Amino acid sequence: MGGVVSGSGGAGAPPMGTRGPVHIVGTGLLGASIGVALTRGGVHVTLEDASPIPSAVAAELGAGVVGQPGEQGPSLVVVAVPPEVAGSVVARALSTWPAAVVTDVASVKESVLGEVRRAGGDLTRYVGSHPMAGRERSGAAAAMADLFVGRPWVICAPEEASSSSVLVVRELAVDVGARVVHLGARAHDEAVALVSHMPQVVASVAAKCLVGASANALDLAGQGLRDTTRIAGSDPGLWAAILLGNAGPVASRLREVADGLSAAIDALAAAEAGEEGKAVAALHRLMASGNDGVLGIPGKHGGARTEYDAVTVLVPDQPGELGRLFTEVGRVGVNLEDVHIEHAGGKPVGLTTLSVPRGAGVGLGEALTAAGWRILG
Fold first, then answer.
1. What distance in Å separates the CA atoms of residue 259 and residue 265, rounded to the nearest whole number?
2. Which of 70, 67, 71, 18 is nearest to 46 (CA)?
3. Which residues pair with 11 in a beta bridge?
């Protein structure tokens, strides 16, 4: 890649590989976050959106400047629009800027590639991609420069894409701190159906069961329910489009879920009919298969998940208490692998569960007890 680097990330930071100008079409969470990250690295970014409000908000947050890139034209166009229109916007960008590499960050890839191909777009300059990052909040106002740090960024290059075009998109992902993964469009869609789209539907269906629930029942809700339904607060319009764009792979995964639920229902029906032995065996198999599946989820540092010790601490719901707890853990010299906080219903305390390396839990519990913290066994 020739040319002059548009800027660097400041003193001591490596220079950005991405060359400006970069033109971002769509200034929601992903588009604005990419703009903020690149702008902070010194890359010249221009912004475009169908609505002037999100682009103005993104510009105010430092994602770039609103407008076209000028006579020079962009070296890279990032299309960050909903999946149902991503293909047409990519095709338009390829036609409008014949010297630019174009990528999109839609969460489905095969349908977008198919639309660009049918439109006759120059596939040597098109490289589909998908950063596996997001927040429960959406829109430009939720943009974060570090949204992609450590997250997978899937590159789905069509076979026609030039190696130089792939490199441009790879450098974009690396510059914003992401971890690059290469997959074909179909393999990507099948993968996200399993790890993203199916869980979203399951969470939404579970949360739907809470509609109309009594206050007494909801007061008993613990962290398990919150963990299971957390993503059910996502944007319905966006998710309807995502699911339609990946209908086949998602439907296949949901059939697996339905089969598992049917097995559980049959087992419970057997228990009601007095066949408890049959029911226990079936339910045990179902729960054990879930244990096996969880173990395959990568842990904090990649690879298979490691089992941790859990230490649950009663933390007063007052400013500074959580920070004081973390400081004490650091003083003991134990590394925190994960933290879960559950608020006790109607009580000014929280149950904070600290996940620490196997074998460190007993010593940490004793040290925290000696420091005045209440440990729950």
1. 10
2. 67
3. none
Instruction: List CB contacts of 71: < 8 A, sequence separation 6 or more.
Output: none
Classify 56 as helix, strand or coil. helix
Burial (0-12, 13-18, 19+ Cβ within 10 Å), 283: middle
Tell me, rounded to whole angstroms, the distance of Cα 1 from its chain centroid: 30
Distance CA 8, CA 17 (A): 9
Nearest alpha-carbon partner for 126 in 88, 100, 106, 152: 100
| Residues 6+ positions from 259 with CB-CB distance below 8 Å | none
Which residue type does 367 have?
A: A
Residue 282 near residue 266, CB atoms below 8 Å: yes
Tell me which residue of 78, 187, 179 sits closest to 127, measured CA to CA. 78
pLDDT band for position 1 (50/70/90)? very low
Question: The tokens of 364 are what?
Answer: 């940490």
Burial of residue 250 (CB within 10 Å: 0-12, 13-18, 19+) is: buried
Residue with tokens 């997001």: 134
From the list 69, 77, 82, 71, the residue with the least C-alpha distance to 122 is 77
Q: What is the pLDDT of residues 231-284, one digit of tens each?
A: 998 889 889 999 999 999 999 999 999 999 999 999 999 999 999 988 999 999
Gap between the Cα atoms of 183 and 181, Å rounded:
7
Q: Give the DSSP H/E element, type plus range, for residue 24.
A: strand 22-25
Strands in 308-316's sheet, in edge-to-edge order, are 338-343, 349-357, 308-316, 374-376
Rg (CA), the chain: 24
What does the alpha-carbon distance between residue 153 and residue 163 come to, in Å, rounded to a whole number?
17
pTM of this prediction?
A: 0.78
The one-character DSSP state at 217 is H
**CA atoms 81, 83, 89, 91: torsion sign:** positive
Q: Residue 21, preceding bond cis, omega within 30 degrees?
A: yes
